[in-house]
Structure formats: structure tokens, C-alpha cells
Amino acid sequence: MRNTRQSMKWMMIAAVLGLMPGIASQAAAKPLKVYILAGQSNMQGHVNISTFDSMAGDPKTAPILKEMRGADGKPRVCQKVWISSIGGAGDDTTEQKGLLTAGFGASPNKIGPEFTFGIYMEKLGDPILIIKTAWGGRDLSTDFRPPSAEPYVASKKSIDWAKQHNEDVNAIHERVANTPRGVTYRQMMDHVRKVLGDIKRVVPEYDPKQGYELAGFVWFQGFNDYINEWYYDDRDQPGGYAKYSHLLTLFIRDIRKELKAPKMPFVIGVMGIDGMKPGLHMTHFRQAMAAPASLPEFKGNVVAVETAPFWDDDLAALQARAEKNEKLTPEEDKRLKAGVSNQAYHYLGAAKIMAPIGKAFAEAIVNLKKTR
Q1: pLDDT tens digits along 213-253
Q2: Number of neighbouring beta carbons within 10 Å of residue 246
Q3: 3-class DSSP state of 35
Q4: What percent of the chain has pLDDT over 70?
Q5: Where in the sequence is the domain holding 239, given as residue range(s)?
Q6: pLDDT tens column, 298-327
Q7: What does pTM read for this prediction?
Q8: Looking at the 3D structure of the chain, how many domains does it have?
Q9: E-assigned strands of 135-249?
Q10: Helix (H, G, I), strand (E, B), or coil: what is residue 364?
Q11: Contact 355, 312 (CB under 8 A)
Q12: 237: domain CATH number?
């Protein structure tokens, strides 16, 4: 009897110390944390890896750059973060999958916010799967229009224009009514279901006994709605983008309902193009994007992350001067070429801007989890 008790005692100690792999691995197994990242071209990612070096001289971004590179100086390859991405290699549903590293942006030499998002989420110690769906030039009013939204109708501005130009108003209504809506929304949800239906296809080490948790959703979109003066025909006025707030609210509800995750943390990446000195339309649009996070039903589970503070005024000014063919000093030209790889609407294709944004999205989800 004494020997039996002694044997059980040592078995328990061995399990705690990890000396019995079978028992220890079962105890240590954690659910796979699944994060869904969706949006348009800035979620796709147009930041060339050639701009990484520009982060080194800024004390705010240098520590992030250190995390983005491995010991060999090349882009880091995460060992506990897998990704399945569609839309990044083009406007289609071609899938890229594997361990997270640079190259899951709009082309093999680019990144979006997924790179630093995954790097900082990995620090929590959980195995992670990122499902990313992003296509350039997509809007919420049409392409991502949620299923529960009311029918799309022609705006007052488009009807007035038709009347002024002797166009057939009925034909305008008919064309609007027959235009497909929510196509990109369905593509997004189809891919999410496809990945969740066979996780091992993307995460070879996944054990179904381990299970998974829908741990968060990041939405980074907006430019095509921002410039759509026909659908948002009152955008000059406060509240002119209220229809975007309404649709985004429905979008959050519909996704949670379809995925049976009623309180899944949701991050809204508020468009930050032009930085801290936005124009009138941008100001109104940012307010509309952030508005759903203040609704009582979303308290503690939806957060709006302002990306404007990460904008780089110096790089933007250099880009603007170069586009006007103004002469730059050799030092200015060097900074421009090292730091900028795309247009302003793509956050200048600057790692100095996009890398902190991805990190901020990760921190926002962590904070939501703490709140919960």
C-alpha cells in the first residue's frame, strides 16, 4: 500500500516537472488562438521590406524593427504563428499559407499589419492562426455589405444628377437594385469557414483535441467609402458618413452571429491617412468609423484604434515635394527612397508607419481580453 502511494506521488511530481511527456503535453496543450484580419488594400499591405531600415534611426520604431528581424538580419519567421491569406497576391481567392513572416502583403516583398500583429501576439505564448482576407478597392457599402443591411438604394445626389442630365430615373433605381451586394463579405466568410473546417491543412501541428478559440477580429478598411461622394452624399456635414457607422455595426453583429462568437473582440482600425491634421471629409469619416465602439452593446468588446498618430509628416512632406518635382537635398532624397515605397493612401508604403499599426492592433486585442 505504501509502495502504491509512493508511486502515485512520484507520478504526480514527474507530470508537474514534465518528466512524463504524455501527461505533461496534455496539460500544456492550449487552444489555438484564431485571429481574423479583413479589409481592403491597407490590410492587404503595400509596405515594401526595403523600407525596414528606415525604422532604425527613430527611437519609437527601432525596438519594433528589432522584433521584426531574426538573428540573421532577415525578416523574422514566427515559430508559433501560422497564416492563411487570400486577396494579397491579387484580387482573387488564391491562398498563401505557412508560418508568418514578411511576404504576406500585396506581393511577396511586402507586408501589411499582419506581420507585426502576429509578432506581438506570439509573445503571449499561445499557438496562433491568422486568417487574413483583404482585397484592394473594396467598400463596405457594396462589396463588404453585411447580410442584415437594408437594400441598397440610389442616393439623393445620384437621383438629382439623373434629373439634371435628363437620365431615366427608373433605370437608375433598377441598376442600383440589380447590382450585386456583399460579394466580398461572402468571399471572406467562405474562406474563414474553409480554414476552420480543416485547420491542420494550414497548421500541421494542430491537434483537434486542442481545439481553437476565435480570439479576435481586426477590420482595416475605409478608403473607398471615404471617397464615395455618391453614396455618402452629405459627407460635407457632421454625420455625413453615418451610413458607414450603421453598416459597420451590422457587419460586427453579422460576423459574430455567423461564427457563433457573440463577444469576439473586435478592433476597428480607424483610417489615419494625413495624420493629425485631417481635412473636413477625413475628420467626418474617422468619427463615423470609430462610432460603433461607443455603443453600449459593444462596451468592452469593440475598440477603435486611431492610426493617425503613426503617420509620418516628414516622409509625407518629402513625398509631396517629389511629386511636384521639387529639388530635394541628397539627404532628403535618401530618406525618401529608404522610407517610402507607395502612395499616401497606402500609408506611403512605409514600414515606419505600418509596423507600429500592426503592433497597436495586437495591443488593443490584449487590452480587450483583460477588460473581459
Answers
A1: 999 999 999 999 999 998 999 999 999 999 999 999 999 99
A2: 17
A3: strand
A4: 91
A5: 31-147+182-371
A6: 999 999 999 999 999 999 999 999 999 999
A7: 0.90
A8: 1
A9: 212-220
A10: helix
A11: no
A12: 3.40.50.1110
